[in-house]
Structures are given as C-alpha cells and as structure tokens.
Request: fold
Amino acid sequence: MRKIIVWSLVGLVMLCSMGCGQKAAKENDGEKDVEVIASAEDSTRRTEEDKMFSEVKQAAEEGDVDAQYYMACIYYFGDGVDANLEKAIYWLKKAAEGGIAEAQNKLGICYAKGEGVSQDVVMSTYWWKMAAEKGNVDAQYNLGFNYYEGTGVEMDRSQAVYWWERAAESGFADAQRLLGICYKKGEGVDVNLEKAAYWRKKYEENPNKDVRTSPVNPN
Reply:
C-alpha cells in the first residue's frame, strides 16, 4: 500500500502540469484541433486525478498516516478540491496522532492561532513538544518561544535555550540569532560572550537570516 501511496502522490503532482506542454505543442495544428485535444487531455487528467485521490483517501481511511497527512494538506490548501478547514483538521489530527512530526507541528500552529480549532496554548505546546522530540526544527523553534514566554507551559528559559539550540544546530537562522541574545544577556544560561559571538556569527553567515520563519512567532 505504501508504494501505491507514493506513486499516487507523485502522479497527482505530475498530472497537474501535464496538459500545458502538450497543448503548446499543438498550437500550429489549428486552433480548433488544439481545443479538442486540450479538452480531451483535461478530461483524461481529471479522471486520473480523481482515481488517484480516491486511492489516497482510501489509504488514509485504512490508517496510512502519510496519506492522512496528504489529505490534510490538500483540504487545507484546496489542492484539486474545495478547501475545507474542518476536513483538513480532521486528517491533520489523525496524522499527528499517528506520529507524523510535520502534522504535529502544524496542529500545534492551528491550536496556537485558533485556526479550525478552539485556541488552546496548552495543546499547542503539547503538539510542538511531540514534534520537537522527533527532530522537527520548526516545532523546536516554536516550543522555545512557549517556554521563553510561559505560554501554555510554566516559564522556563533554560528550556527555551535548550530547544532553540537544537534548532540552531540544524541551521535554523532565527534560533541562532535568539541564542546569541540569550548568551549575551544571560537569559536561561550563564552569560557567555564567546558563545554569544559564535551564534551571532552563525546567524550572520546564514543565507536564510532574512527569512522570519515562524508563522506564530514572526518577531
């Protein structure tokens, strides 16, 4: 079943871009012929997309967590279907409960923002910690903020530094910046100007330093 899911997901992406190139190749064969061919291609593509969507949905309903996460994404973004936040959250919870770290992080964001669920900072902390412990750097970064600010958990700036350091070691630019500040000011750690300079330098050299990465904590 996993091979079917992988090929179905790849197929859905490929089918979304098939028709354009084929239609362009027929432009000189007559406008009417091109329209007929394009219409036939569109019909075939829609049929294939519907078939693959059905396969992925069936797999999700049978408990495949990768398929469940994919279903959450397509309903959230309206990718080939009408966007439906309620269905997106349903499948996101399934995938998160099944151990998909990306789903756990995104569910944490939904709880933090009150998007599709009642706002609940305790639940956002819960899901971010689950994802962070699996190595999801976005969750590590977000969880650091909750510990730093005492949001949904008792304030513990040493824990904030711990999670930011894990994200920073994975190359997360803004976590590197924040670590530099913490070591310089002695927030959650002893003042250490050498480490402050080290993380500031890592941040300055990071090609992603100008990208503020957290949808929840953009500053």
